Amino acid sequence: MSRRLNDGAADVLVVGGGPAGLATAIACRQAGLSVSLVDRSQPIIDKACGEGLMPDGLACLQRLGIAVESSLGRPFFGIRYIDGESVAEGRFPGPPGQGIRRTRLHQALVHRAEVSGVALSWQRRATGLRQRQGGGVELELQGGEVISARWLVGADGLRSRVRQWASMGGVDIAGPGSRRFGVRRHYTLAPWSDCVEVYWAEGCEAYVTPVAADEVGVAILWSGGAADFDTLLHAFPGLVERLGDAVSCSRDRGAGPLRQPVGSVARGSVALVGDAAGYLDAISGEGLSLAFHQAEALATALASGRLSEYRRRHRQICRLPSAMIRLLLWIEKRPALRQRVIKALAREPRLFSRFLGLHSRHLPWHRLGWSTGPRLLWRLLQA
Ligand SMILES: Cc1cc2nc3c(=O)[nH]c(=O)nc-3n(C[C@H](O)[C@H](O)[C@H](O)COP(=O)(O)OP(=O)(O)OC[C@H]3O[C@@H](n4cnc5c(N)ncnc54)[C@H](O)[C@@H]3O)c2cc1C
């Protein structure tokens, strides 16, 4: 039998206290809404992630009132692509990004949410929801409790149940062969680069992110079936050499399949945010930044009572990143072209830098310049 807990108590009920859910809760409080949040886990929550926060994601965090001091992580100033002998490095044309352990990021977000007045409730698993006619939502929790709210935000990650319960999932037209997964591990080792390094190999990539003065994170993304970190790591001899006999200092964590289609990000009184709102791939390393932009847009829409506005803003936020991810995945599958692209970018570091400016929302499209296409094409032909 269900027990009704708080009929009509909160304006917004968030399911999922990961980065997306916490950022949304904080942004909603900033917009003057009352917020409750439930998560099935106990903080501090760790997760498979490359842990590179792009400059625009950092700026979002600052707007949410979270000062990302250097003690919280390690700045990175660009991206370095490494494919065998080919190396290309692009520097951000604006402020740096930050490598930050998920646990430290989670701690900072939880603290900010508490201070902002979000009612946080841990170790409570959502098991179902019902949209009420005439508005409002009821969320069922394990044990039979029911919480009601005016709006419900599904921030419950890649395999979102809220997305499923609210019939907001999409159709995946790609076959199981194109499924991609991720796994991460940390090493006690002083970072050797002030960039996030991306090592490319056949069917997989490794991301090395400096996360502290004596710690680097390595995340590997791959296509296909089950695999473990050690087997995958051997596809990157240059990286294996770099890591030497450094000691691993975290438990391996995996995630996937990464691609999770979504039909709609808002329906009735329910909205989705973060990975729950659909996910393509981690190849561009910006899931956190996207989640924070979405959180801000969703809070604005909820405060004005117009969820349709969130649908529009979500499309806008994801348009360029989605195009970038599709392009990177297409190149990833074509090793000869990939090597050419990296050689071309190596010869045009300023161009690479401008792409990063675009990618991190620092530069508008038109700043790429009319000559970008022809120049890149010329370099590709030369490579
Ligand atoms: C290998 C890998 C590398 C990545 N690298 C980067 C990177 O370098 N930079 C970057 O920006 N992004 C990266 N990403 C993406 C980034 O990790 C995600 O986009 C981000 O974690 C999304 O946060 P979220 O809050 O949406 O989901 P999550 O962090 O998954 O949080 C979901 C929360 O919902 C809770 N939950 C789930 N179900 C229920 C339920 N039924 N009831 C209650 N609570 C529930 C969970 O406990 C969890 O706390 C990477 C991802 C992977 C897999």
Radius of gyration: 21 Å
Bound molecules: flavin-adenine dinucleotide
CATH class designation of the largest domain: Alpha Beta
The domain tally reads 2
Into which percent range does the helicity of residues fall? Answer: 25-40%
The N- and C-terminal alpha carbons lie at a distance of: 68 Å
Low-confidence stretches: 1-5
Q: Work out the strand percent.
A: 25-35%
Q: Give the beta-strand count.
A: 20
What's the overall geometry? Answer: globular
- Oligomerization state of this entry? single chain
Mean pLDDT: 92
The CATH architecture of the largest domain would be 3-Layer(bba) Sandwich
CATH topology of the largest domain, by name, is FAD/NAD(P)-binding domain
Q: Could you state the CATH homologous superfamily of the largest domain?
A: FAD/NAD(P)-binding domain
Class by alpha and beta content: alpha/beta
What can be said about the biggest beta sheet? 9 strands, mixed
> DSSP helix count?
11
Give the helix/strand layout:
Layout: E1 3-4, E2 10-15, H1 19-30, E3 35-38, E4 52-53, H2 55-63, E5 74-76, E6 78-83, E7 86-91, E8 97-99, H3 102-116, E9 119-121, E10 126-131, E11 137-141, E12 145-154, H4 161-165, E13 180-188, E14 196-201, E15 204-212, E16 215-223, H5 229-233, H6 237-243, E17 247-248, E18 253-255, E19 266-267, E20 270-272, H7 287-304, H8 307-332, H9 335-347, H10 349-359, H11 372-382
Parallel strand pairs: 1-12, 2-3, 2-12, 3-9, 6-14, 12-20
Antiparallel strand pairs: 4-8, 5-8, 6-7, 10-11, 11-12, 13-16, 13-17, 13-18, 14-15, 15-16, 19-20
Helix pairs in contact: 1-3, 1-7, 2-7, 7-8, 9-11
